[in-house]
Amino acid sequence: MALAAATSLPTFASPRVPFSVSAAGRNRSGLLMSVGVRRVPGISVLHSQRRRVVAAATEMPTAARREEGEKTFVEEMKDIAMSLHTEDQARTVNLRNATVEGYLRFLVDSKLVFETLEDIVNRAVVPFPWYAEFRNTGLERSEALKNDLKWFSEQGHTIPEPSAPGTKHASYLEELSEKDSQAFLCHFYSVYFAQSAGGRMIGAKIDDKILNKKELEFYKWEGSLSQLLQDVRAKLNQVASTWSQEEKNHCLEEVEKAFTYSMDRLRHIFT
What we know:
Elements: H1 48-59, H2 62-69, H3 73-83, H4 87-91, H5 100-123, H6 142-154, H7 164-179, H8 181-210, H9 225-240, H10 245-253, H11 255-266
Helix pairs in contact: 1-10, 5-6, 5-7, 5-8, 7-8, 8-9, 8-10, 8-11
């Protein structure tokens, strides 16, 4: 069912969003950036303490959470995503291990994931036509990545085929899009918002180190990035407002898996 409020989505102020992320530690907005996630059996990357964070977020009724902190649904997803980062993981980032070959694998897999997300929302067919609300948000990255990979090719680099971290995530997104819209929306949020924040800062460091400060199109947006993000936040919150509490909890529980897929792609750069 299409959004009833599609033509009258709430208007939000456009706050300035600080994106200053260090390789290890938190910025003024509280974001902790890390990429050194340890591999453990299965999909989980959480310790028991992290699981309690997710459980607390999903077990407390939304009304109570809003009364305590007046958090939007997007803020709840962000809180869980931030809980998956640790100081120890942040310290494992070693830019000295970054290579052009690894960076290309990351960019190729990222292109596939962004293309998949864009294709899904552009199709926007039954039973979830509201995916169409997320067309042409200004956050799309596949065309920028296409241009970047063309530039690498012109410099004489061989562009690899997509690898498992990209193909597995893309396949999973297709599967979710057809049968599990709440989980799909979680991945949509995680991919785009991670790229615009910590991903952008890590990209700048990598570009400085191995590309002689060449700034890739992947890390450029037309217009105000903070406004683009705010517009998408408003739409995400609008969609979530139509869900039951069980559906909201299900989406929040998917944050861990979305985080893991993103870290698997990012790990290309450092291995």
